[in-house]
Q: What sequence folds into this?
């Protein structure tokens, strides 16, 4: 947070709410009128089953927005995450994160949980039990000693699942003694269901504790795990996500590194200055995504330190390297050990204007044809045409 918390201080507010929306057009009109009158910029996503919002402006005006939203009974119990911060200092980052305009769109689903449009999403009503930051911390704190005392034949152990993408977990994650944090290492959230399917035996019969940035991704993912039936009932999630946890434990608690966020702040850390990330090329400690370096194949954000950054350089992320894509001699960072790929492979890029697989997004003024659904996040290239592989969500 910035030091000045006065009424003219800039800030951001993040919130989501899963609830049936009886009149989406009416809610669209409310956000259009309210946000424009208050001069708020950012992204508002409306769906038949709820809303997902990340907007910025003066703190005093954001508070007025929150008050107006709270007056609608649909938003009862909503967790509004309001934080003071610096005004966007980097135009490129501000544009990519949607903080140079107000974007209000009606979408089919708040987060794209599956790449297959015909696959029905799980019922949110079946989501895992919410744990407050204090409760979440307490469970982790007591888990180690409890697991040490457990009989090896007792399979009801604690499994900690990170529901975020690889570029987020690179710079920060929960690390608890004697409790393994499962990091799916996925490029985008819609890859998570298949990873859960492939690893379902790691959850069966165990207590599953999961977390994400602000909570919204855990809602859908926890419901998906529970939908598998017997043996998958004990699923819990961190209410308010890492953001609320760091507010409650400013020293970081069991969370190490920085929390990647989908706005111009890029990441938010604790008072612990330890760096968890590493440069893709030289392996030195580094966790700053402000340079917006990306994989040449899939456009996922990659960490490249200032010393290794070169004009017109080509980068290949860890995931693309694992799938045999490379260029020249590029270090492969895997399990904190550097390996080198020396065989040159011809680069293949995804056409940026190919939208044949993209679902349609509707705005109040008609169809917007060239955007993948829920695509505007800090990991996209703006609000124009973009590679299909960047089906990123507005995450909290």
A:
């Amino acid at each position: 947070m910035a030091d000045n918390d006065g009424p003219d201080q800039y800030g951001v507010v993040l919130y989501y709410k899963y609830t049936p929306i009886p009149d989406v057009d009416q809610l669209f009109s409310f956000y259009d009128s309210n946000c424009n009158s208050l001069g708020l910029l950012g992204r508002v996503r409306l769906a038949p089953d709820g809303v997902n919002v990340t907007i910025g402006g003066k703190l005093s005006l954001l508070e007025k927005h929150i008050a107006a939203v709270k007056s609608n009974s649909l938003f009862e119990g909503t967790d509004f995450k309001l934080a003071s911060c610096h005004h966007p200092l980097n135009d490129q980052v501000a544009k990519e994160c949607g903080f140079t305009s107000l974007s209000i769109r009606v979408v089919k689903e708040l987060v794209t949980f599956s790449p297959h449009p015909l696959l029905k999403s799980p019922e949110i009503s079946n989501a895992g039990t919410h744990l407050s930051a204090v409760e979440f911390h307490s469970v982790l704190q007591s888990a180690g000693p409890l697991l040490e005392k457990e009989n090896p034949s007792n399979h009801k152990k604690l499994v900690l699942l990170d529901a975020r993408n690889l570029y987020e977990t690179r710079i920060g994650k929960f690390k608890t003694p004697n409790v393994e944090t499962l990091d799916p290492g996925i490029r985008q959230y819609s890859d998570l269901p298949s990873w859960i399917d492939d690893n379902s035996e790691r959850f069966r019969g165990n207590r599953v504790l999961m977390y994400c940035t602000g909570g919204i991704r855990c809602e859908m993912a926890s419901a998906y795990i529970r939908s598998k039936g017997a043996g998958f009932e004990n699923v819990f999630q961190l209410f308010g996500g890492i953001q609320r946890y760091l507010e409650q434990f400013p020293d970081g608690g069991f969370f190490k590194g920085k929390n990647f966020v989908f706005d111009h702040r890029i990441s938010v850390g604790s008072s612990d200055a330890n760096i968890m990330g590493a440069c893709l090329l030289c392996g030195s400690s580094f966790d700053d995504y402000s340079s917006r370096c990306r994989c040449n194949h899939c456009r996922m954000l990659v960490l490249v330190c200032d010393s290794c950054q070169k004009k017109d350089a080509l980068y290949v992320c860890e995931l693309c390297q694992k799938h045999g894509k490379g260029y020249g001699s590029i270090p492969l960072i895997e399990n904190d050990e550097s390996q080198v790929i020396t065989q040159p492979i011809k680069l293949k890029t995804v056409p940026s204007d190919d939208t044949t697989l993209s679902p349609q997004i509707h705005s109040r003024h008609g169809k917007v044809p060239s955007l993948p659904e829920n695509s505007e996040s800090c990991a996209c290239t703006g609000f124009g045409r973009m590679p299909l592989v960047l089906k990123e969500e507005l995450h909290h």
Observations:
- The first strand starts at residue 10 and ends at 18.
- Residues 146-155, 328-393 have pLDDT under 50 and may be disordered.
- The radius of gyration is 21 Å.
- The domain at 124-260 is CATH 3.40.250.10 (Oxidized Rhodanese; domain 1).
